[in-house]
Amino acid sequence: MTHYNGAGETLLIIGASETSDRIAKRIVERGYHVAQTLGARDAVSRVSAGEASVILLDLTTGRVTLELADTLMGLPSCPPIVVLDREPTVERVVAALRIGVADYLSLSDDEDEITHRLTTHLDKARVAAHSAVARQESALHGKEQSNGVTQESTGLELNTARRLLILEGTPILLSAIELSLIELLIRCAPNLVTYEEMSQAAFPSVTDMEHALRLLRPHIARLRRKFELVQNARWRIANLRGQGYALRRIGAPLTARAP
């Protein structure tokens, strides 16, 4: 097993089992790097340092729990999390959905399927990382051609392919659900987005609106916290109690969207 050797190409396995060890070897054979850790503190440290593009949370031996996924998702930057479980229960899968994990796998899935699903996530991360580098080079070239004169920066940039929000120059990795929420908020900014509109954007297949709203709350709370962790940020996700949320610049008035 190899250790971290480059952003955008590393699977971080948290926990250990015979299955995840065999999967790790397959992932390495496909040209990706694999790192492994057993402790929550080390996992937080590695993720915070950007030493993973995809996380496999191995719950099969009981050494780690789903609560660790919630902790990792609360960090300013967290890559997609894939859960591997022995016998998933409905309650645990729903809990994982609320946290925002990208995929949920079971030991009942054969190893070919598990490897394929993980490789798909890693492929997306690799493409996104390369695209980000190309965009940075293009932006730098544009600044050089304009003799150093650039337009006023809003301090907010969204890279949907990479699921990356750049807030005041600080990169923030988003879960799939957080991405759908921030896309909607940006599209409607500075106007209000109702709770119902946000729930439909995040959970389009959930028909019970009250249940969708319960699922929404932890995701919007986590997204707001990521904004608040960026120092001197000029943007906040404001809450208009009883109505919804709006993406607004600090000091700007909060307005309702025209019918």
Mean model confidence by pLDDT: 81
How are the strands ordered across the major sheet? 2-1-3-4-5
Main β-sheet description: 5 strands, parallel
Question: What is the element string, with H for helices and E for strands?
Answer: EHEHEHEHEHEEEHEHHEE
Strand content: 15-25%
SS field, number of helical segments: 8
Low-pLDDT regions: 1-7, 139-153
Question: Helical residue percent?
Answer: 40-55%
- Please tally the β strands and state the result: 11
Radius of gyration: 19 Å
Separation of termini?
A: 57 Å
Q: What is the 3D shape?
A: globular
Architecture overview:
The protein has 259 residues and is an alpha/beta fold. The chain has eight helices and eleven strands. The chain has helices spanning 18-29, 40-48, 67-73, 90-99, 111-145, 176-188, 195-202, 209-228; strands at residues 10-14, 33-37, 54-58, 81-85, 103-106, 156-159, 164-167, 170-173, 193-194, 235-240, 244-249. A five-stranded parallel β-sheet has the order 2-1-3-4-5. Strand 6 (156-159) and strand 7 (164-167) form a beta hairpin. Helix 7 crosses helix 8. Residues 1-7 and 139-153 have low confidence and may be disordered.
Summarize the structure.
The chain is 44% helix and 19% strand. It is α/β, with parallel strands linked by helices and 259 residues long.
List its traits.
44% helix, five-stranded parallel sheet, 19% strand, three-stranded antiparallel sheet, 259 residues, single chain, alpha/beta, globular, 8 helices
